[in-house]
Design brief:
Helix content: 25-40%
Radius of gyration: 16 Å
Largest sheet: 8 strands, mixed
Structural class: alpha+beta
Protein name: DUF411 domain-containing protein
Pfam families: DUF411
Keywords: Signal
Distance between the termini: 40 Å
InterPro entries: DUF411, TAT_signal
Number of domains: 1
């Protein structure tokens, strides 16, 4: 087990060095080694579009179809007030809803003391919900101490 952890660290370091030499942002290189496990309804098109958004951003994604997402959310500790369309796990954090890849990268880079991040509801223009006039929305950081704003977006564009 220790040897495996050593090789992952070495592999990540080599990847970051190669990315730096090529001028690729470290966040994109880091995403390549990070598996996102997505729990989604098998019949949901917007969930599939969000999965593609993450893949396009460089994340490895594994989809687990789940007809009863309420049970998945309860098991993972997602507050009912933050429930959205799909739930994901990445590096010990939970992602709920149409969270932009940029917010996931920041979460993984900063490693705040939290359970995860969420985009409650299904804001138009958020990743996977393209079409129409993009809405302003807040990515919420949540955990045992409650929740607070983490990032703001209009559609896929970060505004703070």
């Amino acid at each position: 087990m220790v040897e495996s952890a050593y090789w992952m660290t070495r592999r990540s370091l080599v990847g970051l060095m190669a990315a730096a030499a090529l001028g690729v942002p470290a966040a994109v290189a880091f995403a390549d080694d990070t598996m996102v496990v997505v729990h989604k309804d098998p019949n949901c098109g917007c969930c599939s579009s969000w999965v593609q958004h993450l893949r396009d951003a460089g994340f490895a994604v594994r989809v687990e179809e789940a007809a009863d997402l309420k049970t998945v959310r309860a098991r993972l500790g997602i507050p009912a007030t933050l429930a959205a369309c799909h739930t994901a796990e990445v590096a010990g954090y939970m992602l709920e809803g149409h969270v932009p890849a940029e917010a996931v990268r920041r979460l993984l880079s900063e490693r705040p003391k939290a359970k995860g991040i969420a985009v409650p509801g299904m804001p138009i223009g958020s990743p996977g919900m393209e079409g129409g006039q993009p809405q302003s929305f807040t990515v919420v950081l949540f955990g045992p101490d409650g929740s607070r704003p983490f990032m703001r977006f209009i559609g896929k564009q970060s505004v703070g």
